[in-house]
Specification:
There is one protein chain. By secondary structure, the chain is α+β, with helices and mostly antiparallel strands.
Amino acid sequence: MLGAAIVFASSPAGATAQSRRHRPVHARHTAAAAAPMYKGALLEDADSGRVLMAYNADMEWPPASMAKMMDLLVAQEQINAGRFSGNDPVRISERSAHTGGTHLGLREGDVYPLRELMKAALVKSANDAAVAVAEKIGGSVEAMVRMMNARAQELGMTHTLYQTVDGLPPRPGHDVDRTTAYDLATVARAIIRETNLLMWSGQEKMDFDNGVAILNNTNHLIGHYEGCDGLKTGFTYQAGFNVTTTAKRGDMRLVAVILGAPSNPQRFAQAAKLMTWGFDEFTSVSLLRSGQPIPVQVQVHQGPTIQPVAASELKLVVRKSDAAGVRLVYDVAPSIDGPVTTGEPLGRVIAQDEGQAATEVMAISPIAFTPPHTFAGEAYNAAAPPSNSQ
């Protein structure tokens, strides 16, 4: 560990806003770590995945209860797809009722709404609730584990393997789940982007099933660190004290991961210190609005001149001292053949920081154009000679 290095990024990762990979382009400095209070750490911009700081971020580590993030992501995505409802009743099985570790004390045969069990698994880190959610969504714990691993692969989490839905070791000191700080940030960003789970993880305490129990949040940054609204803690004897957390201030949201802190207070202190450094040093620069015209024109052969628009919002997190140096590069062909459909990509807009590509959005057509005498499915080429057929 003494030979490890902390990398502080001074330029964005070479990735698009939806990138699933985490690669700092280069670093302002790399310094030997002086006995940090953790085994691994990571700070990212939540929108782009840009790495702001990394320490042993690719080290394999047990996620402990942070495995529940994937359990709940899969469950919420199944709800979003209409296959389940948060109101669906869940009957507590013998397996769920006898799950050890942190638990609610659910009893076999009891019935609760799916959403209440998801809430308990996220806020209180209740293992019995996580198992009940898995059995409802996957049909069995084993099937849910397969769904979790499949989703991890889709997200590019190549160093993650789940064997449980709750992170609970089969016996003390023998954790079987594996992940990295990079992969934990990836699943956190997916939760932020694709679900509304932060409305629960951002609460210091919540009622369970209309007051049957009170759920105290295991993330002690909630209510005590400005802008913090998630996400998940984890502890086992092997993993130590861990947290994946997120906070938003203004237009910038950060994700921080702390692995292997020596105590419960230290995991939160180190995460807070990391995010505070991020908010102090970096800013989010808004460059383009979704649908905003860009200052280039594309001539359609024997057709109109089109001014492309941004397909989505383009913003970039940079050091505050570097914000004035951000520039846009327009990679758009000056002319094209028709036909053109509304929303068709015509090129891309690249944001550069210190001359390096940082993030990009597509430049798309705001209109449709079909050249005369062109039929559906027929390519139009204005340079082709006219047909002699009558």
